[in-house]
Amino acid sequence: MSGGESANDTGGVKEMEATHDTRTTEKGHDLDVAAGRGNAELARLLPHPAADANKYTRGHLSLVAGSAAYPGAACLAAAAGERAGAGYTEVFCAGKSMITVRGWRPSLVVRDWRAWKPAKAPAPRPGHPTACVIGCGFDAAETSLTSLLMETVRGWEAPLLIDGGALALLANATGLRLARERAAAGRATLLTPHGGEAARLARGAREALEEAKAAAARGTRGPLEGLADTLSAAGRATLAEASPAPATLARALAEAYGAVVALKGPVTFIASPDGTAEIMNRGTSALAKAGTGDVLAGMIGALLAQGLDPRDAAALGCALHAEAGRTAAAALTDICVAAEDLITYLPDAIRAIES
Ligand SMILES: NC(=O)C1=CN([C@@H]2O[C@H](COP(=O)(O)OP(=O)(O)OC[C@H]3O[C@@H](n4cnc5c(N)ncnc54)[C@H](O)[C@@H]3O)[C@@H](O)[C@H]2O)[C@@H](O)CC1
Ligand SMILES: Nc1ncnc2c1ncn2[C@@H]1O[C@H](COP(=O)(O)OP(=O)(O)O)[C@@H](O)[C@H]1O
After folding, report:
1. Above pLDDT 90, what percent of the chain?
2. Could you tell me if the CB of 104 is within 6 A of ligand 1?
3. What interface predicted TM-score (ipTM) does this complex get?
4. What is the whole-number distance in angstroms between the Cα of residue 183 and the centre of ligand 2?
């Protein structure tokens, strides 16, 4: 791993006040980072079901997750998605993972991912929200998964969250181009990298910029034409840095990929393509265990599937995840908490935010 993969230390970002729109300067870039939202604001986003709700109107979450190497990631994300309110949670996973995912939770609808046809999914319609999470438990070494991902980025109309091993597969000129085409078509995308995955996404954006430059030098028109001109100078400077500070990196990735980016770590930064960013620093080091990111992806995916916009889904999902971690740590100690416990303690997190 390169030095760039330690992207999520918090060096360079000033301690945030508990007020909104805190202004700070990070590594010479002028940066506005809004402090984390308060409980009252978050509570208003909680998707309580309407009295006449049914499982379809509550939101349909499709999870494309769980390679043969990592079935557990699909289990964690799907169970978190159910707990976070999705009315219908469907898992498309490797054939070899199906029995594990089915056995873990009978309420999940489990299919082989060869049956996943993102471009043929019914178009989203009012009152029937839907979203897709792809990548939890993807084995990035399995290059055959690239077409599954790219087909989804190209063909899936509703909000799309990309996590885990799928981020490595997205991190190249083709992935960036397809993500930008989604944005241009008004389709929402949310990326949830940890520091290592964010560094890979930055490399992918650099590759795209190089490709665009080479095409321009040859005088060839191509799909990445004008990319450099559409990115801000600050964004390009951040992508060129070996070890950018996380808030600026989150913002540069959001701009480059045309997606909301939640760059996870001890402090999580949520950045949007329009240049806005907010901080989420309610977490606990009890969360530093394998699988907690898969749980977060399932929670945010369920909120997207219930109709929240990507920024709100990321802010509420990260806050609920952090609160669940804190409550779990209070009960179990910060040593003993495991990813599954966050799902168990999600109801306490909801109550904490509502109170
Ligand atoms: N129970 C399961 O089945 C689990 C499956 N998982 C899946 O395993 C796949 C590989 O993900 P991994 O993240 O393990 O491996 P990756 O190889 O994608 O990333 C880990 C590498 O990134 C570097 N890194 C830098 N900053 C980091 C940071 N802030 N946090 C974490 N790593 C950082 C690490 O040094 C490490 O070399 C993903 O698809 C993921 O969803 C994991 O989520 C763990 C649990
Ligand atoms: N020291 C820490 N303090 C607070 N939160 C943390 C800390 N370490 C990790 N986390 C949180 O735990 C989660 C880890 O996600 P990720 O690295 O993707 O895990 P995995 O890939 O194993 O599922 C993220 O939400 C991150 O913000």
Report:
1. 81
2. no
3. 0.97
4. 27
